[in-house]
Amino acid sequence: MVVFGNVSAANLPYQNGFLEALSSSGGIELMGHSFRVPTFQAPKTRTRRRSTAGPLQVVCVDIPRPELENTVNFLEAASLSASFRSAPRPAKPLKVVIAGAGLAGLSTAKYLADAGHKPLLLEARDVLGGKIAAWKDEDGDWYETGLHIFFGAYPNVQNLFGELGINDRLQWKEHSMIFAMPSKPGEFSRFDFPDVLPAPLNGIWAILRNNEMLTWPEKIKFAIGLLPAMVGGQAYVEAQDGLSVKEWMEKQGVPERVTDEVFIAMSKALNFINPDELSMQCILIALNRFLQEKHGSKMAFLDGNPPERLCMPIVDHIRSLGGEVQLNSRIKKIELNNDGTVKSFLLTNGSTVEGDAYVFAAPVDILKLLLPDPWKEIPYFKKLDKLVGVPVINVHIWFDRKLKNTYDHLLFSRSNLLSVYADMSLTCKEYYDPNRSMLELVFAPAEEWISRTDSDIIDATMKELEKLFPDEISADQSKAKILKYHVVKTPRSVYKTIPNCEPCRPLQRSPIEGFYLAGDYTKQKYLASMEGAVLSGKFCSQSIVQDYELLAASGSRKLSEATVSSSSS
Questions:
Q1: Buried (b) or exposed (e) across 335-354, using 16+ Cβ within 10 A?
Q2: Which stretches make up the Amine oxidase domain (predicted)?
């Protein structure tokens, strides 16, 4: 998701025509035999250069970091992190080969290194981050694969920032959710969470105080509809996986206008799809986190581009403990031993990489492309067929002026074509500009638009922005002028959380000895999100640490067999 998760960029040809654009093992969407790294040089109407008048002074005001350390989920995440640092040092560290340097792969490598092992992290492209990757254009401006928001309800991500000593790189915003009002162009409706109240009272107060989006009868009917979830807890939430949001609302007698006013925007923010497709479990998990934790729905922006501001500190930590990270190392094939276990990863440059254990931390669509034939009928892997990445488009537009009708915050557009957006010249220190706005917008659902031209997408975006900024933006650019833009397409982003997907999500330990999975699609309670990716990496690392004796013995056995074979020849 954009609000709850992440996207990644792909615009790559695949020789078998599986998709118009496929991607890499490290974290866009797909990977195969004849890929190339995209340049993402979008057409421009006019370019600008950064001002040379002097350094920019940041004037946006951020909120102090909330107190997260005493929450149950934060302490649970901290305990899991500590278990790797306190684990007995291995007599012979395992060499663990990890494909994919997105958050799942980086997390796996980080915690394996903490446990005393030697990860080798392979990234297909020349940029870190996978679904949080970003690129710098010729003007020195960054454009990203998605609009990434860090929630207070992300305990493992928040622990990761603390462990790396980079808590100050999160720019926390006021505790609000801000929705555009389509019926009143240019106006917004806010849900403000008072800091003086504990959860869930602060969330209830925010909902009750907002009378612009829902009427009192609608609020009451929605609250009654939610009662089973409040009473039934996690068991009830998981049981709703078989229903779409729209189906659940109808079953609970919740007025259709509640879905139209709130849950279309929320569904698109969570998983880039509409309520008639999204599993209700996804919504209930989000609501549970937001309502059960005082600061759960409080949002923060990263203070700059993700590869440098988040990914590189993880890489530096991995290398400081003896691990390795290699870019431009694309997996071509998973080679097997006679017994069906992994022999090596064959790279597209012709080299092979061997290890004591192997982790595939790329998106599920890539895994399915590279899955060895002998594995395809194994139920564990067969169930992956239902997990498919959802298309999404991320749009960046630089304007010739500072737009006024916006906030230093994430905004829910509630438009037919757009999900969420932000004026990054306000919300992010590295992108700050006192004179010009840069809007970053998520274009979703994108299935019907992913093959359209960039200019078509920009034209459609401008028509939507005309409604959000009626006094400042006109579709014909008679008001604010576009200086330049970048359009980043992802044909396969996070997995599409449709009903009945939950049983198909795999555990991190596969039935193949020595082969593991990491990624937000794997089994963990935060679904398709940055938090889910980080937690999956911790679970993957935990499985490998638990399997140390087995993996070490297997490595010694294979070495002996190789020695005997070499001697007899």
A1: ebeeeeebbbbbbbeeeebe
A2: 103-544
Q: Tokens for 392, please give them.
A: 């999404």
**Angle in degrees, 0-180, between the axes of helices 201-209 and 280-292, rounded to the nearest 10:** 110
Got the DSSP string for 522-566?
SS-TT-SSHHHHHHHHHHHHHHHHHTHHHHHHHHHHHHHHHHHHH
Kindly state whether residue 102 falls inside one of the protein's structural domains.
yes
Q: How many domains does the chain have?
A: 3
Phi–psi pair at 32, nearest 5 degrees? -170, -140
Tell me whether residue 317 is in a domain. Answer: no
Q: Are 96 and 356 in contact (CB under 8 A)?
A: yes
Whether the upstream peptide bond of residue 445 has omega within 30° of 0, thus cis, is yes
Query: In this predicted model, what pLDDT tens digit does every residue of 255-279 receive, in sequence order?
Result: 999 999 999 999 999 999 999 999 9
Residues 179 and 238 in one domain: no
Task: Give the list of residues 6+ apart from residue 67 with CB closer than 8 angstroms, or none.
Answer: 295
What is the pTM (predicted TM-score) of this model? 0.88
Nearest CA to 49 among 141, 143, 139, 142?
139
Structure tokens at 171: 């720019």
* Residues spanned by the domain of 411: 132-193+298-304+389-495
- Give every CB contact of residue 301 below 8 A, 6+ residues apart in sequence: 148, 149, 150, 170, 171, 173, 410, 422, 427, 428
Give me the torsion for CA of 543, 4, 62, 186, rounded to 10°: 170
245 & 183 share domain: no
CATH of the domain at 550: 3.50.50.60
Query: Cis omega (within 30 of 0) on the bond before 200?
Result: yes
Residue 154 contacts residue 351 (beta carbons within 8 Å): no
| Secondary structure letter of residue 252 according to DSSP | T
How far does the chain reach from its first CA to its final CA, in angstroms? 55
> pLDDT (tens digit, 9 = 90+) per residue, 510-555?
999 999 999 999 999 998 999 999 999 999 999 999 999 999 998 6
CA–CA gap between residue 569 and residue 564 (Å, rounded): 9
